[in-house]
Amino acid sequence: MSSQHTNDISGLPSVGADSPFRQEHVLRDEAPQFVLPLVVRIEKAEPPARTDALETAARAVLVLLTDERAHGEGEWAQAVRDWQDARIRKVVRRARGAEWRKAETLPGVTVHGDAAQVRVFPPVPLDGWPKELAKLQVSGTDLDDPEPVGVTAEPGLPVLWLNPGLDMSAGKAMAQAGHAAQLAWWELAEAERTAWQDSGFRLAVRTAPRERWAELSGSGLPVVRDAGFTEIAPGSATVVADHPALRARL
């Protein structure tokens, strides 16, 4: 995952200070690789709606990034630093019943949407997943929205725009939405971050209208470009992070 966001933000020295993409990290692929695990609860009888799951996953990434355990001398801080020094990988797995209850016993944070539940865990080595998570399935996160979701969102709400030309599973799209939220977070000034956090990281995930995708992806807003490990071709632009504070700088 990477960002093509190149706006001049030199007048905002606090912006992006914790982003590995603010400088050229030519050795990212040579660093030890970590992954951020997310687990979505999908019970057979009552699976969450797709958009609810995507929005909850994006919020979960932001909750992890702002957790006091992820900063300074916190117990997750070193893992988060190591993860951000390498490729920013996220993997979404699914759980139900006893699997979900076991996942909740591991250190992490459960984030609730309208009905969706997503638990995010501190980063782990790429080949060092806890056994309770390693056995969970990646496939099978094909969720649907029971009712059509309109293109518009509440005015003033950050919107993560999905590429209308890509066919992604719900799990893949959840990870991409999380990437986009993270890119937006890195580009915000401190006061802007505080305001977003105080709102509970309210946001919307929408599929961009086909006729708007070229404008959105070329606007200068943060764009997620996938590394191509799963489902889609390397370099594919998957999501545009359209935060009002970032749009105001265009």
Secondary structure: elements and pairs:
Layout: E1 2-3, E2 34-41, H1 50-66, H2 77-85, E3 89-95, H3 97-103, E4 109-112, E5 117-120, E6 124-125, H4 131-134, E7 159-162, H5 170-187, H6 190-198, E8 204-207, H7 210-217, E9 223-225, E10 237-242, H8 244-247
Parallel strand pairs: 2-3, 7-8
Antiparallel strand pairs: 1-9, 2-5, 2-6, 4-5, 7-10, 9-10
Helix pairs in contact: 1-5
Q: How does this structure look, described?
A:
The chain is α+β, with helices and mostly antiparallel strands and about 250 residues long. The chain has helices at about 50-65, 75-85, 95-105, 130-135, 170-185, 190-200, 210-215, 245, and strands at about 1-5, 35-40, 90-95, 110, 115-120, 125, 160, 205, 225, 235-240. The chain is globular, with a radius of gyration of 17 Å. The two termini are about 25 Å apart. Residues about 1-15 and about 20-25 have low confidence and may be disordered.
Keywords, separated by commas or semicolons:
single chain; 250 residues; alpha+beta; five-stranded mixed β-sheet; 30% helix; globular; disordered N terminus
Q: Please tell me how large the radius of gyration is.
A: 17 Å
The main sheet orders its strands as 1-9-10-7-8
Supply the helix-strand structural class. Answer: alpha+beta
Order of helices and strands: EEHHEHEEEHEHHEHEEH
* Biggest sheet overview: 5 strands, mixed
Percentage beta strand? 15-25%
Mean pLDDT: 89
Helical percentage: 25-40%
Number of helices: 8
Please state the overall shape, judged from the principal axes of the Cα atoms: globular
The parts where pLDDT drops under 50 for at least 5 residues are: 2-15, 22-26
The tally of strands reads 10
Distance between the termini: 23 Å
